[in-house]
Structure formats: structure tokens, C-alpha cells
Amino acid sequence: MEFAQAxxxxxxxxxxxxxxxxxxxxxxxxxxAVLRTFYKFLIINNIIEKSPLENMTGxxxxxxxxxxxxxxxxxxxxxxxxxxxxxxxxxxxxxxCGFRIxxxxxxxxxxxxxxxxxxxxxxxxxKERVVPAGDKCLAVMMDYLKERRAAGLHSDIxxxxxxxxxxxxxxxxxxxxxxxxxxxxxxxxxxxxxxTLRHTFATHILDRGCDLRSVQEMxxxxxxxxxxxxxxxxxxxxxxxxxxxxxxx
Length: 249
Description:
mainly alpha; 3 strands; 11 helices
């Protein structure tokens, strides 16, 4: 068949055949993108006048369910002995507020309102948001700042919230390395990163009745669809509870 003879029905039939082969969504999406590029090439070179893929949408990508910690796993992390106050404060804020690691490292002390129980952060697109912070989280942060003052380290309101060993703002790479050490010490078997604490924050508060719009605001997501991935996690959690609790399951 000539390229010019192919229409959207033939393309759909081709995609249907591929779908029957149980290929992953990512593979189907990639093949559709290649076809789209190929037909653009044919148009540019005056081989065809119109693409059969015009106004066609490709296969939707699968949304991966994010990895998160259970309540028991996060508690094991907090119960670790001999953890530096700085490191504990970082973990507390990541879990309490759902920040990205780069957002945490950009914080200054004046971003933290210890009386109003909120932390102001600047996220993606330089967009500022204010997120509630728990009492336990802020208490640990306050203890860390007291420790800094006693050691003669920078602790005025314009100082970085977290300092490295040289008394300067803690670098993101170093923070990741520090946190990774504690994840291993806590015996966490799954692959855990600072972003896992963000996923854990969102999952746990949704499990306890927080509405999706509020979670979107706290995470700083532009679109609600980005936040909706966490509903897959909570639905799976509900299914497990149902299976254990329902007498006729």
C-alpha cells in the first residue's frame, strides 16, 4: 500500500494489532510518536499532502503508582537512635509538608512560621505556596536551631534552614546522601529517596480523609491530574482493608 492511501482507519487497525500483542503502553506510545514523525517527514518532502494521524490522539501513558512508606516504616525511621537533629528535622519536614528535596534545601529560617505552624516555600515555576507543618516537625526544627546557636553557627532569620559541616547552606547532593544513609539504617527494603517521603506524605493524608484539591495545593501541582495518581494508592489500600474486614469477601 502507498503511504498516501493509508487513512486513520488503517492506522487504528495497525494500533489495534499492536495492542493485541500485549505491548506496554510506553511501547505503544513510542510507536505512535514514530508514525507521527514519519508522516510529518512525508509532508515536508511533498510525498503526501495530509497526515492520516491528524486529529488522532495516541495511547495514554500508564501512570506509575508512586512508591511510599507504610506508617510502620516511617515510624521506624523516626525511632532511629543517634540521628543528628539536623537530619531528623529534614526528614520531619519532608514527611510533614511533602516538599521536594530542592525545595527543602532552598528554605531560609524566615520561611518557617513557628507560631502559625506553616512553612512558605518556592516550588517549580518559581511559584510560592504556604504549607501547614506539624507540631512535632517544628519542635525538632526548633531544637536544631537552638543547637546551632549554642555552637555559634549562623542562625539569624535570613540564614539557610539547613547547614552543612562548613557552616554554609547544605547542598542537595549531600542532603540526598545523608538521607540515604538513614533509609538504609532503618532497614527499608524498598527503593527509597527523599521524593518517597513526598509520596508518603500525600498517600497518608489522603488515606485519612484529606481532599484531593488540598493535597494538590500542598504539593504545588499545577494540574489536579498529577495529584490523582495518589488515588490509585489509596484505592488499593481500601481494597486490602475491605478484603480483611468484609465477612462475605
